[in-house]
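For the sake of transparency, this paper describes our internal protein records without simplification. Because each token names a local backbone shape, the row as a whole describes the fold. One such record is reproduced below, unchanged from the form in which we store it.
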Amino acid sequence: MINNGTATYTNQFIPCPRYQIEQELGEEYFPTIGEYKGLVGLLKLTFHPQLVKEKIDDLKQVAPPNTNVLMWNNKFYCLHEANLPMECRMYPDGTLQYLGYETFNGVLDYPVSAHPVKDGREDEDDSLIFHSYSVDEQLIEEHGTMKVGMYNSKEQTVSTYLVPTPSKKHVSFAHSIITTEHFIVVWDCSVHFQTDALFYGGSFFKSTEHSLKFGVLPKNATSRDDVIWIDSNESGAIVHPLHAWEEVTEEFQDGTLISSRTIIKLWSPFSKDLELDLNKANTFHMIEYAIDVHSKTVSREVIDDTINSEFSVMPPRARSQPVFVPSWLAVNEIQVGNETVSTTKKYSTLSYENRFGFTAILGDRGHFIGYAKWDLIRRCLDSTVYYGKNEVGGEPTVVRAANDKIYIGCYTYNEEESQSSFIIYDGDTNEKVCRLHMPYRVPYGFHGQFIPKEDLEKHFQYHENRPSSELKDVEEEIYRRLVQQMMTMLTFP
């Protein structure tokens, strides 16, 4: 936390029920994915769900919520794609208090991924667009392999909640989603969940020959029938897309709109044969996809194949009205005499505020060794920044200051000097602004979030003013869990 020129650092285990239960037991109780190997692993896979339910009855609250965080509507959430969002109260010193799991008034019956999307400008009430996939057989049977939703902040309701996938035959690694002005884009990639890892080892998600497909949902979609699936006709996977926008062509006849055609431009690192194995390095290159919603076709263009980069991040949205790129706006008119009889308008929803995006550069060992800056208007790799000698780091975090200036921050670790640092770069020039030497070893990782001071203050104020009835509900839930744990400990076979 940086305030008045002073930097403070707080580190703690996320106080989820899983962690609290294991602390009370004094030992690890909940299984990890690495235990499911061989015949013993098969037996564990068979009996573990019931053992877990003895401690936590909802399996959507079991996974450690340590993938990402979200500050939204003055609430702070810890996220994992197999869980419901876990709400915490953050105190001014950075410590967290467990409050419970978000269900949007009982509507959520499916996990929420670690990459929900705030929809709207910072000065408006944000809606939240979310999704996740699941390998839980019961969830798949009841719903499907993926579910997408939108929580409308103004109406305080879930306005969209549906299964977009047409089949339950396979579970695709669908880690993220991305949105444009009018659409939500999901995908069905080549990396599928396969149980043969029980016997052959490696990740449970493996590459197949299945082609990458994009699912396009209008934001007002109400059913699977509203989803348009478009085949890219190539195998491969995308994990963390960079940005997407719309390029629209409208035809007018005598002032009346007679046709409209939308092409979604999507930039994303792409891997031909992604392997979700920490012992293996993957290769990603930046691709621009052009998804034609009208003709249901998709084309691709390689933006750059000279660097290996992933973990995309865009600057936080500007609080002011976005200014669209005028050079992409074209108007063609056909006149008969003094009258305009036909007009063609072309425009883009890409704005100047979203001109530049950033990705982490991967080294030979799979570590992050720097970051890349991408120019979406000029359609090229703008520049690269590499950390120092013997230095590896985490995913870059992008900060938009109050004056709209962009900064890049990242944790690094010098392996030779055993020194952790936090480095801030100027987002315009890539010059190093400062290096903060950390007095302790700080884990560098990914999916960090910058939370502006005003958002933190709103969060603190929200909890100070939170109705006592809501706090009572939280206390009762914590008490219920404690009683459940005590009863389990007193139950003997």
User: Anything to note?
Assistant: The helical segments are 17-25, 38-53, 137-142, 197-200, 453-464, 468-489.
